[in-house]
Structures are given as C-alpha cells and as structure tokens.
Design goal:
5-stranded parallel β-sheet; alpha/beta; about 20% strand
Amino acid sequence: MKALIVDDSRAMRLIIGKILTEIGFEIIEAKDGAEAMKYFDGTGQVDLALVDWNLPNMNGLELITYIRSNPLNNDICVIMCTSETEKSRVTDALSAGANEYVMKPFTRDVMLAKLELLGMVRS
C-alpha cells in the first residue's frame, strides 16, 4: 500500500515515514498541499494520506476538501496529523472528510491504533 505524507517539516515526514515503512507502506512525500494535489486525480496513486493542517500554499483542511471533492478518492483513508488541538479544528477536519485525527506529538502506538481502526493494519 502507498501512503502520502503531507507536511512542511522534513523531520515530521521522516518520523511518520519510518513508522509506516516499518509496517509495510511505500512512502510518498509532499511538502505542501499544492504539491500533494497531483496524487488525488482518481487513479488510485495512494491508499492513505497523512495531512498536516498548517501547510504553505494550501492548508491541510483545503487539501482534504479537495481530495473529497472527487468521488474517485472516496476509498483513500485520510488522517489529519497536526499540532492543532482545538476541538473545533478536529470537528472541521472530520467534517471536511478526514477519517481520523492525530494530535502531535504522538507515539508510534497511537499512529498504529489509528491505522488499525481504519483497517489499514492488523494488530
């Protein structure tokens, strides 16, 4: 399976990428929402997207809205992975189409639990 990590922090992309690689995902990276858009053209390029809220050029909420605007992307699991902790942000992300929400900092176990909940990994 392929996972797209969308985060402007190279360190964060590496941390998330390490977790996902260890459980068998092929990793693709994008440093902002605009760069990530090309992976959501309905051709099934990714199975999972982990999206930061605070991105240059197109924020994470805008990216999730873009992803969900194409019905061909309905099978893509989207996790908002961000330091935004306000309840309204969680609600906004889920309403826009995120399947789950992970607050930074997080542990490997938290990430694996979210992936298991989405049926992306088995315990």
